[in-house]
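Subject: CRAL-TRIO domain-containing protein structure
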Amino acid sequence: MLESYKGAILGQAGAKLLFILFELVSAFSMRKFNHFDEFYLISVVRFVQLNVSWLHLIVVAFKNEMWFHLVLEVKEKLEKEHYDLPVGENGRDDEDMILWYLKDRRFSVEEAIAKLTKAIKWRQEFGVADLSEDTVKSIAKTGKAYVHDFLDVNDRPVLIVVASKHLPDVHDPRDNEKLCVFLIEKALSKLPAGQEQILGIVDLRGFGTKNADLSYLTFLFDVFYYYYPKRLGEVLFVEAPFVFQPIWQLTKPLLKSYASMVCIFIMNLYRVLSPNSSLNSTNLNSGIYLCILDMHINLSTAVKFCSTETVRKEYFTEETLPISFRD
């Protein structure tokens, strides 16, 4: 697949590159023998306008050439060093999966192989391929999490978590994990062409201490860093109560072990926090904050604290809005 695409692009780009070089030489020749600067300037501007898309295509072609060779290198190393790993979709010869992990590891072959190997082994041990609506039916009935039927306004599949229905003292932790992975797989299966990430919405209305589960949060960080890297494009914490703030403070150190996360806090305090909260006396009511956590792993995920009104107005249309967020 990559090879045929590469050949077609390079063939067209190579021919066009020769034409562009010829035109550029002609333009400079004109500049040498023609002293009409205005005409020369117009010619150069027009030249750039006509050929900028082809110049971009050439850059893309060379980039794909590099990717192609790196993907082949990873495939060959995996076949030689990890021949016992499965092949096929999500296997050691899955070119799309290899390329995704190369991008995640900044095209370091060794790092991509290490992380990809870990992910493939985990998929086998966890039994990801065996998960289905039937295998998670019991825990799914709780309504604690589901994949929304519609995409958001940015064409992203939406995974919704109802935090008040997560009861760690009642539900089997393994069942929670299976439901989580099944829903991530389901959301990714709904990705439209050109889209690579999903939106996560954590509905915190009614959240209490009985719903807090740091062990499960640790599992989530593992899942989204090791096994589904860069798939979670944005997370919305909706209507976070004051009791959630200590949980968030405990969560941030865990994040330092997993991700470099840009945290965009959009907090309408009269909606998010208790009116009697001591935080109201601080200089937080400007509404928008940018907190860059200095962490050693590269994963960019936007984390936004917002109201239900923000969800309605900024992420969905009237037709696609989840029922639980309607007036």
